[in-house]
Amino acid sequence: MPEEEKGLNLDTEEEKFEIEHSVDPGSAWLVPYGNMMTVLMVFFLILYVFSYQADSTTYERVVLNIQKQFALKGKVAENVARKVEEAESASELANFYEKEHLDRFVKVEINAERIRVMLSNPVLFSLGKAELKEEAKKYLKPVSKLIKTGKIASKVIIEGHTDNIPIVGGKYKSNWELSADRAINVINYFVNEEGVPPEIFAVAGYGEYKPVAPNDTEENRAKNRRIEIVVLRATQ
Questions:
Q1: Are β-strands 226-232 and 201-205 bridged in parallel, bridged antiparallel, or unpaired?
Q2: In what order do the strands lie in the sheet with 155-161?
């Protein structure tokens, strides 16, 4: 009797083991799904790391070219293709300034919403003046070429910025007026000398109220005296 009871207990334990370790055929999809999610996690981790190693234009181009490989149609496909062109154009512009050794006074940034070209005033204007210097054209002309290619969105905002030194005497009563007039003169150059359609432009004069550095040294004040050309990108 004890041996039979022992055998009975053994059968019961085997049945428990089979029940506990059996796999429901209906949940078999979880294994490949889990593998896929792991691969995706690694993929996005690589992109995250890459974003810290590459400049913004290069990273943007990589991401958008990956998106372009998907079978997108209609308006979505057009917007993705447009964003790829915008990113590549911004990268080409940044490379041009670097190749021509003009990048000391120019910075090109790109994000999901806009392309921003920041130009320091020393190469554009004299202190307290709004008339463009002759040398300013070699910095502005490449931007006009980019706009005229049609590879970027159809809205461009020209922003004028100054330092916080008050204006005393002269033509302008405030830094607001000076910054706005400088932005207008940049637009006049694009329209009158480069033939860019005027309807794509808007003007913003911020005066000293959007600094990129504290106005505590001459070097920092020079950084704040700038023109920013903001190209609004294609929307989804």
A1: unpaired
A2: 106-110, 114-120, 226-232, 155-161, 201-205
Residues in the chain: 236
Q: Which helix (H) or strand (E) holds 84?
A: helix 74-99
Domains belonging to the chain, first-starting first, are 84-232 (3.30.1330.60)
Give the angle subtended at the CA of 82 by the CAs of 80 and 87, to the nearest 5°.
95
pTM, entire model: 0.68
Structure tokens belonging to residue 36: 């896929």
- What are the structure tokens assigned to 176, written together? 């607001």
The per-residue pLDDT for 148 is: 78
Q: What is the pLDDT of residues 165-185, one digit of tens each?
A: 999 888 899 999 999 999 999
Euclidean distance between CA atoms 99 and 141, whole angstroms:
15
Q: Please choose, from the candidates 180, 160, 178, the residue with its C-alpha nearest in 3D space to the C-alpha of residue 224.
A: 160
Q: Give the DSSP letter of residue 109.
A: E
Backbone phi, psi, residue 201, to 5°: -95, 150
From residue 12, how far is each of 4, 17, 95, 140, 236 by CA, in Å? 12, 9, 75, 85, 62
DSSP assignment string, 169-232:
SSS-SSHHHHHHHHHHHHHHIIIIIT---GGGEEEEE-TTSS-SS-TTSHHHHHHHSEEEEEEE
pLDDT of residue 162: 96
Q: Residue 198 corresponds to which tokens in the numbers above?
A: 């005027």
Instruction: Name the β-bridge partners of 155.
Output: 232
